Structures are given as structure tokens and as C-alpha cells.
Amino acid sequence: MIKRIIFGLILCVAIAACSSSDDGNNGNNGDGFNRTELLTNLADNIIIPAFQDLGVKLSAMDVARANFVNSQTQTNLDALSAAWLEAYSVWQHVELFNIGEAEDVNTTSDDRGFVRFFNIYPVSETEIDGYAASGTYDLTSVLVDQGFPAFDYLIHGIATGDATALDKFTTHTNASGYMTYMTDVMSRMLSLNNQILNDWQNTYKDQFISATENGLNGSFNKIANDFIFAYEKGFRAQKVGTPAGVFSAGQTFPDRVEAFYKGDVSKTLALESLTALENFFVGRAYNGSTTGSSLRTYLQFLDSDDIVTAIQSQFTAVRTSINGLGNNFSNEIENNNTQVLTTYEVMQAMVPLIKVDMRQALDFAIDFQDSDGD
Amino acid sequence: MKKLALSLFVIGSLFTSCSSDDDGGNPNQVVAPATYEFLRNGQTTISFTGQTQRIEMAEEIISALKNTSFTEAQIDGMFNNTGDNFSDAELNAATTKKVRSKTAASFDFFGGSANISNLADFDGWIAEQVNDVYPEWGNAASAGNAGFINEGVAQDGSTRYVNAKGLELNQAFNKSLIGAMMADQMLNNYISEGLLSGFTEANDNGTLVEGKNYTDMEHDWDEAYGYLFGTASSVSNPLLDIGEGLGGSDSFLNKYLDRVNDDPDFNGIAQDIYDALKLGRAAIVEKNYDVRNEQAEIIREKVSQVIGVRGVYYLQSAKNAFLNGDNGSAFHDLSEGYGFIYSLQFTRQPNSNSAYFTKAEVDAFLADLLEGNGFWDIASDTTILDTISTAIANRFGNFTVAQAAP
């Protein structure tokens, strides 16, 4: 009798051990980590507050723009420049979130999503001068000469034949054309951000949080890829690698830095972008310092503390290295490119940590590939 | 008692059936074809023209590095495929392929973009060869001076051209590229679980690359194959070029697989690598990724071993030549060894994300070899050659210095 009971117990244990391997989908990946909690933290505490703040800063920028349209003084232009920089800094915190409506607003075949309309640089001066002259353009099309870089040229750049940036809006033959173009670019930025924010608040948030499945369409898979892509492309390559000649056999492009026309803020923006990436990794709330469920806690949950340590010390090394550069990356590339390349190498050293070690530990699929294949 | 025995039997079989679910798949479920030949609807699914072209480009580059009529700009242009400097027009503007962008650029080690400090090494060798060695082509080399040196105790053998430290820069470039491009792309990129992860769904669904007869994952695996066998006389049976007196099909990884395979201590290694590539590719067709990954680890171990063995081989060969007073041959061996040591940073320890030696460790070995007057100094004290040989063999653990030595 006792033997039978023992046998029965063993059988139960065996069956239980067997079935526990396929425990269905309770907001996790079968690894026990609660992905729902992670996605909720990202949406509620980071993504939506960042888009909200961008909306606030874009509105302030629009007020400064209106003041300048009413009175084209250098003081008003400076105020607009200051508002532009504030909004541009907040933009660094949303650039990563190329998902949902932000991804869908771009119907071209590139993989940049809304970034295409907010932060592709350099812009073409010739094109923008042409739009000011002709008044013919469609910002809702594939046009990339819009967003923050277009503003940078408009309010800081000097058009051919002019002496100052202000001349564009006062003495230039096409002054009213420049003004209209600027206003249209502003409207486009405001409306795109509203569209994306509304979608998050009204429909996409629930969809984002509930898509806990594995595979390329799962939210975790997408957002983890967005993080890697933002680090590799928007941060490492665009801000430093491309202008410093890393991808062009050493030929440098000092005019391809972020905020080229303003000049002295490329370091500020790079550091802001770094902060945004680091905050995302540790799940730090946009408004405040509380950290929550994130890539970091996911790694810790899976006992990959060594990877967390490596990534966090690399973030620190990147910050130290960028801090060692001057404010104006364009000048740095022209006069001190060896140090810029050293910074690039420190930035690059993060890529295998997040793209290989972290990816392997969290077991998600990379959904973008280097285009220079074959 | 019978009941108990029966019960135990039942329990036993229960556990067996339970554990067999998660044992990483049964390799027997995938059967490799006799040769590397894969078809879909009667047409081949194999393609690696990009790899063949890059090997051909690399061949032209190492030739140019021994031809003083080339300028630095021309050789730089060949490395980056700009300016139409290849003699084979197919390799010029007709193709978008470049050697440079695939140098130290694997997914696993570098996130897929070329590492600039490694590129600086390759760029530096080109520049030094053209600017410092070419002008001394007609002068005898000596400690601290670039020039030519003849092999042979009587200095009647092949003429080699070395820099001020005795290093042949064309050899440094050639052998280092074996690690930085061929091995790195093969071991750390195209068979990487991380790189291939993005193609799992497409491969599971049989989704073909637009306009092609292969899935992305199939193609990636073929590209790994191409870096080793891309110039073989037979795509499906590249081992026809490997064997005593055959010499392989190129001047890079294939050639040295042939050399190592010719050593009785390592005979069969070419077959092992070929078999693993073949079974891994069949596993992709069968959507069995555990078997695929197991083959990847075999390929990593064996191809890495080729580089480790060859590094030790040349160090030991150089030691013997120095003992005979044949500096010319010793410098030539050391120059080849230098490149194989450089290549160690791109090897891959199986079941890890690491090379057998880090870049820092490799740089330290290379600095030791070039200290002071470089190879000229080693001629009078060869201790360093044994020190490095032993360090390499110990780290690999799957061969001894004696086995690797000539």
C-alpha cells in the first residue's frame, strides 16, 4: 500500500516536471520573467512622458517661432534658437521609440520611421533654398529636409549672398518664402508628434503591452531591437562615426555632425542621447530617478549580472570619452580627429555587449541586418 | 515484486520520454547529403559570389604589395574597391563588394561594422610598404633599414623585401587577413546564432529572398562556406583541391587548411570542417537549429585550430632557420607567423563568445616580436619564439608545439 502511494507520488512529480516546460504565455517568454511589467514600465514611465514633454517643448518652440514671425529681431531669433535646443534635447529621448505610429508614419522602404521626418542630417541647403524660392514642396512626402536639422539651417545657417542667419528672413529676396517654409516645418513636427502621442494614449499602449509573445512581432523583441539600432545608428554612427570618416575609409565629413549650423551643441546632444539610452537600459522614469523593470532587471533575473556590469561600465566609459571632446564636433573632426576616433572606438565597444551578449542572454531575434551583405 | 519492477520500468520510461524533449535535438534527424549540393525545385540554392570576389580581390592586393609600380592610393583603392584598380574588371565598379568593410567586421565581435583600430593596422601596412620599403627595393636590408634579403644559408634563395625590423609587410597583410576577414566572417558572422536569429521565422516559413532561390539563413551559411571554399574548383566537393601536393585553391584560409591537413598529426581536419558545413546546411533546410549550432561549434574549433597550428608552425620553422644562420628564411617564416598570430584575435573558442586570444594579448605578442630591431634581434636570441609557441599551444589545448612544428 505504502509502495503504491510512493509510486503514485513519483508519477505525479514526474508528470509535473514534464508539463512545466510548456507553461503557456503568462506575460513571459517561458523564462519566468514578467514581460508585461517591463513593457508597462516602458510605456507609462518612459515613452509616453517623453513624447508628452516633446509636445510641450515643441509648443514652446512654436511660440518662439510666432514671436519671431511677428518681429524679426536677433533677440527673437536667439529665443527661437534656445527653444529649438530644448526641444532637440528632448527629441534625443524619443528617437529610440521607432515603434507603432512612429514607425508607421514613414511609408518609404527605409527603416528610420519617424526619424526620417525629425532628424536626418545633413539637410540640403540647395533644396531648402529652392523650396523658399518656389514655395513648392510637400512635407508629408518622402522629403528629408525637415525637422530639427532643417530648423538648424534656417535659424543658424547663412544662405548664399547673406551675411547673417537673420538676413534670410529680412533682406533676402525669398525672405517670406523662408518664413513660410519654417512655419510649415514647425507645423509638421507638431502634428507628427501629436499623432504619435495620441496613438500611444488612445490605442497603441494596450496593444504594445499585450504583445508579449516571442518572435519578430512581439513588443519586447521590437523594442530591444530599437534600442540596439538607436545606439548603433542614431548615436554611434550618425553623431560620430560618419562625420569622423569611419565608414568612408578615413575621409571625414565635418559638415555631417548633428546641429552643424548651430555648431557648439553637438556634444550636448550626444550626451543627452547617451542619457536617454542609459535610462532606457535601466528603466529610469523620464520624470524622476526611479528605475523599474527594464533590460537590466531582465538580465539580472536571468543571473546575467556580469553582462549588466559590462554594459553599465561601458556607458560610463562612453560618457567619459565624449566629455573629453570639445563642444563642437565639427571643429573636433577638423582639428582633433584622432581623439574623435578614439571616442568612436569606445562607443563601438558597447555594440557587441548589447547586440551579442545581451541578445543571447535575453534570447530575442535581431530584426535588422547590415545592408552591406553578401 | 513483479509489480514494483514493472512500476520502476514505467517510471524509468516516463523520465526518458520526458528528458528526450529537451536534449538539444537528435543529430540523427538530419542527414547530410554526400556532397555540398542543395536544390530547390531542381535548381541550386547555393550562392557565394561575394566571397569568391573578395578572395580574388585579396589575391590582387597581395600581388600589388610586391609590385613597386603601385602607388599607395591604388592599393588603398583596391582594399576599399574604389578607383577601378583591379586587373579583373569584374572586381571593379561592376561589384559593390569590398574587402575593407569586411575586415574585422563580424556580427559577434564587432556588431557588424569594421573595427577601426584593426583597419588602421591594414592601412598602415600598405602605407609602410609603399612609402618605406618600395624605395629600398634595390638595397640590402640590415638592422634598422628596410630592403631585400635572400633566403638560404648561402643567401641564394628567394628574395624577400622587409621593413626596418625584418617584417615582410605583404606577408603581414596576407596572413592577418586570413583571420580578420576569412575566419572572422566565417566563424563570428555567418554561422553566428545571433546573426541568424533574425531569419528563423523566414526560414521556418520557407520564405525566399526576393528574386533568389534561397532563404536568408541558407545564404548566410553558404557565405561562411564561401570564405573557406569560395575559389574551389568544385563547389560541391572542394576537398578535391586539398591534399598532398595540391596546395588548396587560394592564398588564404583554404591554402592553410590544406597545409595543416597535410600534416599527419592533423590529417582529416579538412574533412571534419567540410562535413560540419554540409550537415549544418542540411540542418537549416530541415529547420533543425540545434544541429546547425552544434556544427557551428565544430567549425569554430577546427578553423581556429588551423590558425593556431600555423602560427606555432612558423615560429618553430623560424627558430630552426635562425639556428642554421639563414636569416632570410627565418624572416620570411616569422613574417607569416606574425600574420597568423595577428589572426588569433579572430578565432573562436567553441561554446563561448570569445577568441582564443584577445586583441590585447595578440598586440603584446606582436610587440615582443618587433621590440628593438625586431627580427634582427631575435636572430641572436630566439627564446621569445618558444615562449609564444608554448602560450598558443597551451591555450588551444588541442595540439602541442611538437605536433604543430615542421
UniProtKB/TrEMBL annotation, chain A:
Keyword line: Signal
InterPro entries, alphabetized:
Imelysin-like, Imelysin-like_IPPA, Imelysin_sf
What compartments host this protein?
Answer: Cell envelope
Q: Which PROSITE patterns match?
A: PROKAR_LIPOPROTEIN (PS51257)
Question: A single Pfam family, by name?
Answer: Peptidase_M75
Q: Where is the Imelysin-like domain?
A: 47-344
Question: Would the keyword Signal turn up in this protein's UniProt record?
Answer: yes
Q: Does the keyword Lipid metabolism apply?
A: no
Q: What is this protein called?
A: Iron-regulated protein A
Q: What is the lineage of its organism?
A: Bacteria, Pseudomonadati, Bacteroidota, Flavobacteriia, Flavobacteriales
From TrEMBL, chain B:
Q: Which InterPro entries match?
A: DUF4856
Q: From which domain of life does this come?
A: Bacteria
PROSITE patterns according to UniProt: PROKAR_LIPOPROTEIN
Short name of one Pfam family: DUF4856
- Name used for this protein in its record: DUF4856 domain-containing protein
Q: To which species is this protein native?
A: Winogradskyella haliclonae
